[in-house]
Amino acid sequence: MNNQKISAKRQGVMLVVSSPSGAGKTTLCKMLLEQHDDLVMSVSATTRPPREGEKHGSDYFFISPDEFKHMQDENLLLESAAVFGNHYGTPREPVERILNEGKDILFDIDWQGAAQLSAACGENICKIFILPPSGRTLEKRLTGRATDSFEVVAKRMSAAAREIDHWSQYDYVIINDDLDIAWSELNAILVAERHKTNRLVFLPEFVQTVLDELE
To answer: What is the enclosing helix (H) or strand (E) of 172?
Structure first.
C-alpha cells in the first residue's frame, strides 16, 4: 500500500452560540474552548467602556462610536447590533484570518448578529441556541447576580424573552438543565460539523488515492 500521507485540510467551522442572558452560554463556550486547541473565540468590537479586569483585544476591542461607524461604513464588520445603548460588532479581518489558518471560530452573539452572519457567510455557519430549563430558573440566575442593578435585571428579563422568540432560526437547540450534559451535546455538534463532507476539502484527493491503491 502507498504510504504517502495526505494533509487532512478542512474548512473551518463558524460556530455561533446564542442564548438569553443567564442561560449558561458563557460557561459552555469556555468549556468548549478549553477542550479544543484549534477553536478560537471571536473577539467583538464594542463602544461600551471596559469593565474591571477586561482587556482590550482579549475580551473586546474597545473603540469609540466614531471608530465603530467607520468600520460599519467601510464594510469591516461581518455583523453589528445595538444592545442596551451600546454597539457591538464582529471585525471581518480576524475571522477570515483564523479560518484561513484552518481553525474553527466561536461566536458568542445574539440572534441579530447570528442572522447577519448567516446572510454574510452562508452555509459555513452552524448556529446553536442555548435555552434555560424554565423561565423561573432563568429569573433566579439573573436576580442572583450581585453585579447587576434591579433595572438592569428587568431589562435583561425583557431581552431574554425577545431572544428566546428566535430559537427556531437556529440549526440546533440545547436545553441547559444539566451543565455536563449540555456541554457534551455542544461538543458533539462541533465534532459532527467538522466532519461534514463539504468541509473536508482533502477528500477528493484522499478518495482518489484509496481507489488507486485498490487497482
So the answer is: strand 172-175
